[in-house]
Hints:
The protein is α+β, with helices and mostly antiparallel strands. It has helices at residues 48-63, 120-131, 190-199, 252-266; strands at 3-19, 23-37, 67-70, 77-83, 86-94, 100-105, 110-113, 139-147, 155-160, 174-184, 187-188, 203-207, 211-217, 220-229, 232-239, 243-246, 272-277, 283-287. Strand 4 and strand 5 form a beta hairpin. It is globular and about 65 Å long.
Amino acid sequence: MKNRLFVDNLTTLDFSYLHPARGIVGETWIMDVELYGELDEQGMLFDFGDVKKSMKRAAEALIDHKLVLPAALPGLALQDAELTGQAVRQLDYALTAKRHIRMQAPAEAYAELDIEEITAETVQPLMAAHLESVLPENVDGVEISLRTESIQGAYYHYSHGLKKHAGDCQRIAHGHRSRLQIHTDGQRNQLAEYQWAKRWKDIYIGTRTDIARQFEIDGEAHYEFAYTAAQGPFSLSLPASSVYLMDVDSTVECIAEHIARVLKAQRPQSRCRVRAYEGLNKGALAEL
């Protein structure tokens, strides 16, 4: 009989992925793992401390805070290029004849997976194969479950990039699947929650000062965002219909405050409280 060890909620993976119809989609997955094999001299399959450290680190290195690409997607072009004199990886993809996406970024800002579609089901076996490289000899294999948070109420998928961030949030296209809670005068305002979730469905939240240019493709407006961060130069072009612009950086703190200010402008006499999430179980509060 094979011995099995499980760890639920091993890690949370925040990333964006390319979808042939939806464009760049922010996502958050929860990862559970099961290991099976023989007990070691301690009577253990794998020390829980080692599981949490080595496997969590390996899982996050594969897709966390990256743009995950289905490299086998028909029409997707990937090539090496230069941006401001530095080597980058460039993707080009046409959602339609008029709606194009182009991204230039350091190679570590991408996860290129040899599949045609990014779903939890298609990524699970690739993640399991990736994690096998960090398993001790007595562990024969690993099974992975990737799942989304069960959310009762409004939520939205958003992508962004934070050029001032010292870590991987500086990557120009990573994202989250996030809940939203709004209270007006102490009462839950589910209508406002759903309105914002609808407005921000599959959205890219961009900062106005990061706009490098605006252009059209057969009459369809596009934005190009560009900046240089600690990891290198980044640029992203995408249809304006997929963009929501803010005057400040798109941190979750600024997102919560922005929503609160818009609501307050609509109802000046009301007290507005916004609880904006950034993926799972974390976020920011704003009250006006």
